[in-house]
Amino acid sequence: RQEDRRRFDPRDRELEEERWQKRQELERELAEEEEQREKLERREQRLQRREQERREQELRREQEPRLEQKLRREQEERREQLLRREQELRREQEPRLEKLRREQEERREQLLRREREPRLEQRLRREQEPLFEQLRREQEERREQQLRREQEPRRPRRQGPLRRRQEQEEEEERRLQEREQRLREREEDSQLLRQQQQLLKEEREEKRRLQEEERKFREEEQLLQEREEQQLRRQERDRKLREEEQQLRRQELEQELRQEEQQLSRQERDRKLREEEQQLRRQELEQELRQEEQQLRRQERDRKLREEEQQLRRQELEQELRQEEQQLRRQARDRKLREEEQLLQEPEEQQLRRQELEQELRQEEQQLRRQERDRKLRAEEQLLKEREEQQLRRQERERKLRAEEQLLKEQEEQQLRRRERDRKLREEEQQLRRQELEQELRQEEQQLRRQERDRKLRAEEQLLKQREEQQLRRRELEQELRQERDRKLREEEQQLRRREGQEQLRRERDRKFLEDQQLLREQEEQLLRRQEEQQLREEQELRRRQERERKFREEEQLRQLEEAQRRGRGWEEKDKGRQQILESGKRPFAGVPVRSSPLYEYIQEQRSQYRP
């Protein structure tokens, strides 16, 4: 096996290196083809854009007279609309300013009302202080009662665990209720304070927001004027830049045409060279494939020979195992016969020792033979596994080779078709470029005149649009201010109703708390009376249970004594009968029990009962 591996490893490495080189060459060729395809796609897109522009220019030339008349009419109408809108804006601004003044006065009145609210809150706190003081006193009384209960003398130990557990659970429940009540009161007080702080914060933010909106409104008007002036300057500058760009574009187009003609000639020369290289590479690849097929046939023949050898070796091993098993059975049968003969002649103790020794020897021999057989089987299995793995690796390598060859063929065919298509596209593109260049040079002058006219129209439309947007923003701002004012009024009304409801809930909660305290005191008194009665009943039950247990223990002791006396008389009778049986035997070793027999075990068990 090692010689086969040494013989095939160098060849496998050479094949892998050749495949790796082929794969790298294919990847380089694919990358070049991808770049050429992207260039062709960009050229096609440019051709389509130019064709579309040419059609649009033809349509414009046909529609120019009508468009000019229409544009003149639209310009006159826009000027009239601008004048009318400016007049409307002036009329609309006067009532808005009046509204803003009234809203500012209303905000000042609201601020005055909010300043009065802290005084109302102080008055509410003064009214609530007596209630809080009463609650604190009641909590202190409750704590003193609890301390008094804990300091009472403890009950005697006979008091049941059930009563102590009940007392602990009741005390824990009372503590939990008190803690929850305190937490709820603190949470409600903190919630009221947070709500008041939130209201004050919202009022300050609203005031700042209104001031900020007024400032932004003034800044927007100023920005609109500056933008109109900047737009006029920008339009003049753009017109000059477009004229310069058109001149540069003419020069670039002529330069591109010359470069493309040179590039096409170079590409045609490179294409012929690549075709010759591909032909040579294909011939080399076919030669390698024939050699690999011969090598695969040789490897298949060697594999079949190795499998036949393995089959023969396996059959021989199975035959040896069967012979060993037959021999072991014969040896075991002979050994049993010899042992039986020796047993008839030897005393019992020597016979037992010999049996143990022979049993150990047989076990050791069987274990050694089993280990040797297992070792041989493992070695054979390992050898088979290694050969199967080598065969699988070889088959996988051959499959990859065939797949790579098929991929190479498909890529070469695709490359040839792609090159032919690219050549035709380049020829068509050159023809179109020449035609378009001539057409573009004639149309650029017309386009410049049209662009200038369109620029002026767009400037007027942009100015109208900006004024309309400004008017819409002002209306939206006024509407938002009205909605915000209405929302604030509704929130203030809701806040007042919420405070009144909270005050009513607080009074109701205080009343319920006092009632619960009275009810708790009554329940505690009833619970103490029930606990004392329960304690008396438990003490009586405990005395009765102790008396029953004492009587039961006395009866159990009497029963155990009687049973021990009965068992002693039975053992004496059995020993006498056994001695009579042993004395009646006359032949030597005839009545002696064997150690492994049930009789011997029974005798040993009875003797051990009489030992001290």
UniProtKB/TrEMBL annotation:
Name of this protein: Trichohyalin
Region (Disordered): 1-20, 27-66, 144-173, 485-507, 563-612
PANTHER family to which the protein is assigned, alphabetical: TRICHOHYALIN
A biological-process GO annotation: intermediate filament organization
Biased composition (Basic and acidic residues): 36-66, 144-154, 563-578
